[in-house]
Design brief:
two-stranded antiparallel sheet; 2 strands; about 70% helix
């Protein structure tokens, strides 16, 4: 909080740095790129939320209903493992498959007689690449959360429903989804709180000069303008701005969730 209102320089203690008040925030909003950066951040965050929110729920329900124990363990491990990969490894995997020169997919495209595609330098493919790689890496963690919630559901509820003639879809609609609804609301509220965080570490690895118009987000702007240029006060001010609006989003989403579903974070 203090650094956001200071002109912090290397070698100078925080409390000995010059107090500049809201100058860092004024500089942030007067930057010509900030509007584009904010729009990119929100767009990518909404895409990540829209495409990444439901797959863990669907997978968790599928795993929960699996009857073959061995197959269930194998498939769960396949889904979980990518979460423990660093983004550097994920980028390496994506590069091995999609690079224009030696990528597996481009080699296949070339063998079929088509022109190779530069997925990493083409703005049209950047966001789909970001969303798909993020989904592959993180879907397993979300699945664990929902499976933990489903483990608390009384199996006798399913048995009673089957005796009453309820099919799989009806059991999911009337038992499974209501049972995990509090967890779904919790995850949604937390996800909305990260609306101004669009996966900075991932995008720093994937983006380049060819896609910067659609890839530049708040985190990359902080890295480029704030940290790389040793403007620590400016970088901290932007981080404080992210945190403040993240808190507002969590409070708002929690209020709306409690009002319309009866469930919330607290």
């Amino acid at each position: 909080w203090i650094v956001a209102f200071k002109d912090l320089s290397l070698g100078v203690k925080i409390f000995e740095s010059n107090w500049v008040g809201f100058e860092n925030f004024i500089r942030m909003f007067s930057d010509q790129e900030i509007k584009k950066v904010l729009i990119n951040t929100i767009q990518i965050s909404l895409l990540r939320l829209g495409f990444g929110f439901f797959p863990p729920i669907i997978l968790a329900i599928m795993f929960h209903d699996m009857k073959t124990k061995y197959f269930k363990i194998v498939t769960q491990n396949i889904v979980y493992i990518p979460y423990f990969f660093s983004w550097v490894i994920v980028y390496g995997v994506a590069y091995a498959f999609l690079s224009e020169g030696h990528g597996f997919l481009n080699a296949l495209i070339s063998d079929l007689g088509f022109k190779r595609i530069d997925f990493f330098m083409n703005p049209k493919f950047f966001r789909p690449l970001i969303i798909l790689s993020s989904l592959w890496k993180e879907v397993g963690w979300g699945t664990i959360i929902y499976l933990a919630a489903l483990s608390n559901v009384d199996p006798e509820l399913y048995e009673a429903a089957m005796i009453d003639g309820a099919g799989p879809i009806r059991r999911i609609r009337n038992i499974t989804i209501p049972s995990i609804l509090p967890v779904v609301v919790f995850v949604l509220c937390i996800s909305l709180g990260g609306l101004f965080y669009a996966g900075g570490e991932q995008i720093l690895l994937f983006y380049n000069a060819g896609v910067i118009d659609v890839a530049d987000i708040i985190d990359t702007w902080i890295y480029r303008v704030g940290i790389s240029s040793f403007q620590f006060g400016l970088a901290t001010a932007v981080g404080l701005f992210q945190s403040f609006f993240g808190m507002i989003m969590v409070l708002t989403s929690n209020y709306l969730a409690k009002k319309y579903t009866g469930n919330g974070i607290w």
